[in-house]
Amino acid sequence: MPSFDIVSKTDIHEIDNALAGVRREIETRFDFKGSRCTVERNENDITLLADDEPKLQQMQELLRVYVTRRKLEAAALDFSKKPERAAGDALRHVVTVKQGIAQDLAKTIVKGIKDSKMKVQVSIQGDELRVTGKKRDDLQEAIQLVRNMKIEQPLQYINFRD
Question: Which residues pair with 39 in a beta bridge?
Fold first, then answer.
């Protein structure tokens, strides 16, 4: 039976390359001269440390730009956590790189596909979804349906098998 997987994976090596670009830009820009602004990555968390709010906003924008330049989607970055105070009036903002499909999002996708009455089956397998059907056309319709759902997380459709 034909099937494919819906996953959400972000290439961490490309994130590292984007962070290197952000660091270079911070070192060379005039408005960052003499500041203690840094960017670090630990696992799936990127920590932005800035002297004040305007510099933090500039760093967030630089991060989005460089991630987009590396052909990744900026939606893979989760800026939802609030910036917190760090030592010496500095601000620290932890940005999370989204990896995998969360349970609630997976349930939303499954519900959307089942409500459409398509002739496909969807199963949640950890942090990814497997969609199976009898015809390739049904699977392509399912991909189109999920793309039209306006999900704020980048999704990839892989392992398409006949």
Answer: 48
Q: How far is Cα 18 from Cα 114, in angstroms, rounded to an integer?
A: 38
Domain encompassing residue 44:
12-97
Asked if 46 contacts 95 with a C-beta cutoff of 8 angstroms, the reply is: yes
Residues 75 and 91 in one domain: yes
Looking at the structure, do residues 83 and 117 belong to the same domain, yes or no? no
Length of the chain: 162
Compute the 3-state secondary structure of the chain and give helix, strand, coil in percent, each to the nearest 5. 40, 30, 30
What pTM did the predictor assign? 0.83
Tokens of 77: 């970055």
**What separation, in Å, do the N-terminal and C-terminal C-alpha atoms of the chain show?**
6
Residue 109 — left, alpha, or beta (φ > 0 → left; ψ -120 to 50 → alpha)?
Answer: alpha
**In tens digits, what is the pLDDT along the chain, a chain of 162 residues?**
899 999 999 999 999 999 999 999 999 999 888 888 899 999 899 999 999 899 999 999 999 999 999 999 989 999 888 999 888 888 999 999 999 998 999 999 999 999 998 899 999 998 999 999 999 999 999 999 999 998 888 999 998 888
